[in-house]
Amino acid sequence: xxxxxxxxxxxxxxxxxxxxxxxxxxxxxxxxxxxxxxxxxxxxxxxxxxxxxxxxxxxxxxxxxxxxxxxxxxxxxxxxxxxxxxxxxxxxxxxxxxxxxxxxxxxxxxxxxxxxxxxxxxxxxxxxxxxxxxxxxxxxxxxxxxxxxxxxxxxxxxxxxxxxxxxxxxxxxxxxxxxxxxxxxxxxxxxxxxxxxxxxxxxxxxxxxxxxxxxxxxxxxxxxxxxxxxxxxxxxxxxxxxxxxxxxxxxxxxxxxxxxxxxxxxxxxxxxxxxxxxxxxxxxxxxxxxxxxxxxxxxxxxxxxxxxxxxxxxxxxxxxxxxxxxxxxxxxxxxxxxxxxxxxxxxxxxxxxxxxxxxxxxxxxxxxxxxxxxxxxxxxxxxxxxxxxxxxxxxxxxxxxxxxxxxxxxxxxxxxxxxxxxxxxxxxxxxxxxxxxxxxxxxxxxxxxxxxxxxxxxxxxxxxxxxxxxxxxxxxxxxxxxxxxxxxxxxxxxxxxxxxxxxxxxxxxxxxxxxxxxxxxxxxxxxxxxxxxxxxxxxxxxxxxxxxxxxxxxxxxxxxxxxxxxxxxxxxxxxxxxxxxxxxxxxxxxxxxxxxxx
Length: 598
Ligand SMILES: [Zn+2]
Description:
Largest sheet: 5 strands, parallel
Distance between the termini: 54 Å
Number of helices: 18
Structural class: alpha/beta
Shape: elongated
Helix content: 40-55%
Enzyme class: ligase
Subcellular location: Cytoplasm
Bound molecules: zinc ion
Organism: Klenkia terrae
Binding site for Zn(2+): 145, 148, 158, 161
EC number: 6.1.1.10
């Protein structure tokens, strides 16, 4: 047991629509498995995120509906908060980027970078409409992506390859308002001097040996081509630039990506302010012993392994130009950037517009959250792109959760409830009994080591292998044949129940809802596994109301160790923990989503 401070920084879901299961397989479930494990192991976890609400796609959605961008953000923020809570994601604070606190923290980081000379003004080419002479915001310019050749790239970003663009980069740019070719005139912006961090970023990445090799190699390769990047954009929706003559301008804002990553810090500060100890965030951001793990899909690596560390280094005064920390003091860089690959669906890339999509809320209406969490952990895109198919989802659920883990729980507790009515008193244990218990209790070491290093797929496979051992033990010992030898039968059932208690601990980070049920089926009282809750709060600075996700996770009893069961604890006939899925669901779901298109 240790009590390290661990920041779990979870990628911010973008609030232009509901999130699908591909999104939550990248940032959501892995970050929660990690946090729940670390809390069970006795560490002090702060898990933060929120909805990312600035930037062009929100304004495009708002324009399409004829409403303001805040209305779009408010609606999707509420949907996303509901979805992530339904999945049991245990955020200490899930907030949003349109809070007054977030704007203030983002502006402080900008000013700290400016003070140390790492942002500088530069004249660049900005688009105007030739017919009206007015600035054309990035979102109103479309063209062909110069990097991947995609036709519908926007002035700030290509949605196909995910690269950040400038309008002047687009091939054949056109105005979306009237189809004319924009004219490019000089426009002043602020740039982040990324080349000034090449050495510091290289030194830092050189010490990050434990990262997933694909993430580390990708991050190191980014350093070969560092160019200054525009910190500000031509857009009217976002955080204002905190400088005289700039603050009031309606056509310039901080670029959405440069404020979104500051969200990890601003959410930590908001969390601290809400606890009544406004300085509490510093234990996760400034203690040399604290660790920070960032979770995301692979399309976001550049912002977490290059841009955000550069912002932190610059704020601390740690780039080529030196400098001193801003008013918050020096801030910790990420310990690890934990990136997943992509989940596809039935062999296709997820696409909301082509309806190749399974939204989280639709999924949770028909299936248990833990069934999806299990699939993501055991078959998700941890190291390579993987495919979600309904047939495989059903197979995993039925063969592994229901027939493997659920059956072990059900038949052992049923037999003990029927024959004894309580956890039986064991006699002398045999070698077979002791072997099983040493396997199940020993697994806390092996599975915990894997979880601490974010090898989650190996971790759940090892936990399920142990479940298999317990099932085999039960079949070999066949307590149902021991009617004539109740003393031996009771020893076998006691051993099986202790093994279940251990396996339930091992599986708790992955299956937090089932873990609470199994705890109760074993006669446990109170809360084993705490679930997040939605709380309606008011903005700490401007009084606006919004929902947050939070929870009192330290009140749960879940610990990362073998906990002895107590003979004599009353047991009732169990209800099934998992639901077997009928073969017909595969065809139903394929009809609902499958072919895409119509
Ligand atoms: Zn592209």
